[in-house]
Amino acid sequence: MAYEGMEFKEWIGEYPVHPVASLFPMIDDESLNALAEDIKKNGQREPIIVAYLDEAMIDEPVVIDGRNRHAACKLADIDPEFKFVMSLNDRELSAQVIADWIISHNLHRRHLTTSQKAMVGQGYLAYLKEEAKKRQDAGRVNSHASRRGELASAKSREPNVRESRSDVRAAKIVGVGEKSIRDADFVVQNDPELAQQVRDSKVTVSAAAKRIREALNPKPELTPLQKAEREMSKFLKNDEEVIRLGLEIALEYLGEECPWRK
């Protein structure tokens, strides 16, 4: 089965939703209600797209687009329309083609924050890593193939090392910096609940990563003297007149006489 090993989080009727499609947050209730009303009035303008990888169409079909339309149809009490495809943009379907199409198709019509894009990129990164692992496992199974042929083929198509890195690819396809992808991955690995808050646009990915790092590596508590030195260093950055005035106020508050006023 072409989709063997995939973990599905959502289902639309009998069809599982592609894991990469599930990376995108659903539209809010107000937008969903508006979409449902539009479908009631004008019908379902676009079908829910289901992809097959095999020409015989016997493999497990997977939904690659239309989660919000399906939810709106359900809300409007209308039977949804489906479209089954064997190619995307005249390209034969493969795991990579489908994943890239889902990302590109959604980013062009969704208004996601940079942090939300980073979380999508992180999920895409995890997907790429899982696909790479599956290819490695398949390579072990086919270990009886000609080693000489494999080496020659690999050498002829050797990519730029940096460009081939999964995090670089993920950052490029969602349009954010590599640091945002790394921050998102760090948040997901260390605090899934906080990661969900980033997906819900309640906190930025950089703020979430900073919060976790500070919790994992708390700064030592400053002594009273260290705190005083820190505040004094800030104060001494002012010009001479401000410093003099500040010292006079402090000495007066302490009941001490200013030495330069004697």
Write a structural description.
The protein has a 3-stranded mixed sheet with strand order 4-3-5. It has 3 domains: 111 residues, Conserved hypothetical protein from pyrococcus furiosus pfu- 392566-001, ParB domain; 101 residues, no CATH class; 38 residues. About 5% of the residues have low confidence. The longest helix has 28 residues. With 262 residues, the protein is mainly α. The chain starts with 10 loop residues before the first strand and ends in an 8-residue tail after the last helix.
Shape: elongated
CATH classification, class level of the largest domain: Alpha Beta
- The helix content, as a percent range, equals 40-55%
From the structure provided, what is the oligomeric state, counting identical versus distinct chains?
single chain
Give the amount of beta strand, in percent.
Answer: 5-15%
By DSSP, the count of extended strands is 7
Cα radius of gyration in angstroms:
28 Å
Describe the strand arrangement of the main beta sheet, using strand numbers.
Answer: 4-3-5
Tally of structural domains? 3
**CATH architectural label of the largest domain:** Alpha-Beta Complex
The main β sheet shows up as:
3 strands, mixed
Keywords:
single chain; 7 strands; two-stranded antiparallel sheet; Conserved hypothetical protein from pyrococcus furiosus pfu- 392566-001, ParB domain; elongated; 55% helix; 262 residues; 8% strand; mainly alpha; 3 domains; 11 helices
